[in-house]
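Quick illustration for those who missed Monday's session on complexes.
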Amino acid sequence: MSNTEWPLWEVFIRSKQGLDHKHAGSLHAADAQMAIENARDVYTRRMEGVSIWVVESKYIHASNPTEAGELYDPANDKAYRHPTFYNLPDEVKHM
Amino acid sequence: MEKDFSEIFQSKIDEELKIEPKDWMPEKYRQTLIRQISQHAHSEIVGMLPEGNWISRAPSLRRKAILLAKVQDEAGHGLYLYSAAETLGITRDEMYEQLHSGKAKYSSIFNYPTLSWADIGAIGWLVDGAAIMNQVPLCRSSYGPYARAMVRICKEESFHQRQGFEILLTLSKGTEAQKRMAQDAINRWWWPSVMMFGPKDDESPNTIQSMQWKIKRFTNDELRQKFIDVCAEQVKVLGLALPDPDLKWNEERKHYDFGKINWEEFWQVVQGNGPCNKQRLEARKKAWEEGAWVREAAVAYAEKRKQKESLHAA
Ligand SMILES: [Fe+2]
Ligand SMILES: [Fe+2]
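Prediction with fe (ii) ion bound:
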């Protein structure tokens, strides 16, 4: 019974207090606790993190790259969502 | 349809856009990457063995701590790379199986023995040096997960080379015997390191396709020349010599000329007849087999804990 490959986990690391957790990579572990301990050894050997999240890879749902066009299209023609869209006279300060 | 996909694929590559795991890719691109990345991962893992040989005999606590950290880094590099390869649809166990059965190769350099402490210096300087030369362009490889793994690896590699050079520098300033030991290590590691870049360009049939796909950025011979040029200068700082009587600056080419490479030896080692091929593979297989109960116990423990937790919740 050697076909017991440990599940795959995705590792997210907060590099500094106040920053977001960012995807660092993945690893195999039998459970969450082991995943966190392994993540410490694999991804933070040089103080790269102050906090670690792990989630089993099978629980990650991703958007489909071939549908990227349709998926992001609705935001494509809405320049008025950006502050630079508006022309205001120079006299207006602090805005 | 297939044709559209492959045009989109190549145009992304031409625009320096990364290919990600879920993107369409030609089967041959996938297979080439699986082979290259897994081979690279195996090299990091097997590469721990020759150096591990000296951890318990490092000459000082400082050197021991450094060597431990370096070997641990190599384990990390192997794991980053296995993960990158897994995104292409091969499992970790399949890769191990390919290594253990001899189907997958690893860098031939690790089939040479580490006979003296100076070998640890020569490995850091030359072997990690050659690896860095190879790996820096791979940080721009077209496959996203591979490129990102290489960025992390390259950041960690530079201490490896520096600690090796420092070992040789210390020996080169030591007693006559220590100097001889350093020179002997360089003599044995130089040519195998030069061969690490792989066969000559005209005997490396996959290079053209790999360059078109931007998996590779430079040819084997280009990288080899760069490595030789750098080392030929660095060795002067050590007051030692590279074991090549034909090594000479060529003013016209603006490169060092160098002697004939023993390709016969290279292919012999690739085919399994190097001094340590058997020993290395056996060590890996033994570790895998003797670790089986740990893998099984961890799964059983995780299973049991999950059951307990769900009982608690109910
Ligand atoms: Fe490495
Ligand atoms: Fe290294």
